[in-house]
Structure formats: C-alpha cells, structure tokens
Design brief:
By secondary structure, the protein is an alpha/beta fold. The protein has 3 domains: 152 residues, Rossmann fold (3-Layer(aba) Sandwich), CATH 3.40.50; 38 residues; 150 residues, no CATH class. The chain has 15 helices and 7 strands. The strands form 2 sheets. It has a 5-stranded parallel beta sheet, with helices on both faces. Strands 6-7 form a two-stranded antiparallel sheet. Helix 9 packs across helix 10. The radius of gyration is 23 Å and the shape is globular. 38% of the residues are buried. Pfam families: DNA_pol3_delta2. InterPro entries: DNA_pol_HolB, DNA_Rep/Repair_Clamp_Loader, P-loop_NTPase. GO terms for molecular function: 3'-5' exonuclease activity; DNA-directed DNA polymerase activity.
Length: 389
C-alpha cells in the first residue's frame, strides 16, 4: 500500500510529487489544479503524507502516513470554507498556524481546498505568507485551474496539473480498494464520468443512486410549464434534503465532541459561559447547509447535462459510449425527434443555470427558468410513445 494508490491515472503528477517529497527540500508553495473529480484533494493529502512519512517514501503504513490520510495528524491543517468565499479571518488564522513549528514531523503542511474561492482582498492577505514562508512550512492550494487564482499567487507556486482519470482506472480502484463487483464498479465509474468521490458515493449508497436516477429521468417528463415548475421543485428539494441532512449530522457530531470536551452530559443544560461556542456550531451548520444546497444542485444539473450529452452523441453518431446507457431507448427517441442545435441550446441553458446559482440567484428561480427552456424539444411529442401530441 502507498499514499499514491488513490490517484489512478495520475502517473506524471505522482512522479513529480514523489520526487519532491523524497528530495527533502520541497518547494514551499504548491498549486494542485484539475477539473472536478481529478483528485486534487487526494493528491494534496497524499503529498502531505509523503512529506511527513517516517520512511521518506509515502509508504502509507507508518504512523505519520496513516494519521495524515485520516486527517488526524497535528502537523497537517486542512481547511475548507463553509462559505461561498473564504473570509479574511480564515486566511489570517492559517497564516498564524503556518508559523508554528511542527509537532513531530519535519514540516508544517497547510492544505487549502477550493483556493479559487478567495477574493482578491483575501488573496493579498495570503500573498506575503507565501512570499516569505517559515522554513518549515509547505502550502498546498487546490483550484480547478491556474487561471482561477490571482497571478501573484500562481507565480509563487509550483503547479501540478491533474486530469480526470479514465473510466478503467476508476473501475480498477473501486474493485481493489472498495471491494465492489466489476459490474458495480463499472456502472459507478461510467455515470460519475471518472469522478472518484462521486463514484464511491454512488457505489456505496442506494439513496444516492436513487436520487441520481430521479434526476436523469426528469428531462423525459417535461411537456408543460407546470411540469417544469414541479421538476425544478423536485431538484431543489432533493438538494436541500441532502445538504441539510449532511450539515445536521456534522453539527450533531461537533456538539457531542464539545460536550465531551467540557464534561457536559448529552441532556444537560449548557452553562451560560459556554453558550457562544455552541451557538457557533449552529451558525456553521447553517452556512454548511447553504453551500451544500448549491453544491448538491450543481451535481444534479451536471447529471441532467449528461442526458443531453448522450442525446448529442446519438445525433452526431459519434459512436461514443453513452453515460446513461440504461436509458438508451428514451435517449434515441429524443435524438430522432430533435436537432443537435436544439440539444446544444439545452446544454447552454444548463450551464447558465449553474452560473446563476453560483452568482447567488435564488436556486429555485434559476432551476425553474432552466426547466422551462428545456420544454421546447419535449412539448411536441411524447418520448415514451413516440407520437406527436
């Protein structure tokens, strides 16, 4: 076992990071870039483990490697913002943390996921820490592409570019690491389009599979404005339920931990002097839920987009494999009764809705507008019967 085992299809990046870790004098600032699903966070965590590995190889078996991969090593700080953007206070706290000497290893490693969520003002606060870092600190920033961070940060970091792994490599990983059958692993790898995190959730959770199936069947039921409104409500409700449940679970776990730390029984009243700390958990829960709704909705819209990607594949007769192969009959029916121009317009509508949601447009309004724009190619025929209405 190695810390690099969860990075299928990233041989070039792994070699670059492995050599840097084994050199003993790595660059002090790194920028991990790649599209969603490429494994930026996994690569950052694997690199941190290799830097602190007791054997110097990223063995994956020593105490340092195991604690880094389990997010419990005191020398590694991983931060993920619960807001739409990072707050300046978050970054200042990280800068202070970077000044601390390592507790047991050779390096103090700071992993900043979604570095593209920093505003220009926040980035400028981080800039000086990266320009003049303590000799024992290593910064690892993660973003979709180098262009998503300011050039002042980008020019001071060593870039490692990752790619979305192939379906075959994700399938092999799911079989080897998660014990899935070849059929389960292949399905999860195909419909996730190589996104390892999503593939694992699909493989492990029946509820996740049901939610996706509901989502990808929505386009075939759009025949009127009322259908569009109902479909939009379904998507937003599913995203809200998923995000709220996740945020509630994390908040409950954090409250239990805080009660344990202060010796407060589960059903005991919280002392007045500690109420502010418990209130912070509730405020964080709300922020997580809001961001979670946006993220969950975005995943759902990407799932809807796969339907139109498959329709376009059939219309252009590319002989490419369909993502939603189990819906081939419905997809072929739509492809026969519409044009590639129509399909491209619908893909653009989905992209616009995703942009609106990230721009803080009311999610329900953005999705309703998108669904209405998708009606045109479905309203003049029935995809289930193949007859004009």
């Amino acid at each position: 076992m190695s810390v690099w085992d969860d990075l299928p299809g990233q041989e070039h990046a792994v070699e670059q990071l492995r050599r840097a870790a084994e050199s003993g004098s790595p660059t002090h600032a790194w920028l991990m870039t790649g599209p969603p699903g490429s494994g930026r966070s996994n690569a950052a965590r694997a690199f941190a483990a290799a830097l602190l590995c007791e054997r110097g190889t990223g063995c994956g078996e020593c105490h340092a490697c195991r604690t880094v991969l389990a997010d419990s090593n005191p020398d590694v700080t991983t931060v993920v913002t619960e807001n739409v953007t990072y707050m300046i206070e978050d970054v200042r706290e990280l800068i202070t943390k970077a000044q601390d000497r390592p507790a047991s290893g050779a390096w103090r490693v700071i992993i900043m996921e979604d570095a593209d969520r920093m505003t220009e003002r926040t980035t400028n606060v981080l800039l000086k820490a990266i320009e003049e870092p303590p000799p024992h600190s290593v910064w690892i920033l993660c973003a979709p592409s180098p262009a998503d961070v300011l050039v002042t940060i980008r020019s001071r970091c060593r870039n490692v570019n990752l790619r979305v792994p192939s379906r075959e490599s994700v399938t092999e990983l799911l079989i080897r690491r998660d014990g899935l059958s070849p059929e389960q692993a292949d399905f999860a790898a195909r419909v996730s389009q190589g996104h390892i995190g999503i593939a694992r959730r699909l493989a492990r959770s029946e509820e996740t599979r049901k939610r996706r199936e509901t989502t990808v069947r929505i386009p075939f039921a759009l025949k009127s404005a009322s259908d569009a409104v109902r479909a939009a409500g379904t998507l937003v409700d599913l995203a809200t339920a998923e995000a709220t449940s996740s945020a509630d679970d994390r908040a409950a776990e954090e409250e239990r931990g805080l009660r344990t730390a202060f010796g407060i029984e589960a059903d005991a009243t919280i002392p007045p002097q500690l109420r502010s700390q418990f209130k912070n958990i509730e405020e964080t829960r709300k922020r997580r839920a809001r961001r979670g709704i946006h993220d969950s909705l975005d995943r759902s819209l990407l799932d809807v987009a796969t339907v139109y990607r498959d329709i376009l594949t059939l219309q252009l007769d590319t002989n490419k494999e369909l993502i939603n192969e189990h819906l081939r009959d419905q997809l072929q029916d739509v492809a026969n009764r519409s044009s590639a121009t129509d399909t491209l317009a619908h893909i653009d509508a989905i992209s616009l809705a995703r942009h609106h949601i990230t721009s803080n447009v009311n999610p329900l309004m953005a999705v309703e507008a998108m669904m209405v724009s998708l009606i045109s190619q479905h309203s003049t025929y029935s995809t289930s019967q193949g007859v004009r209405s």
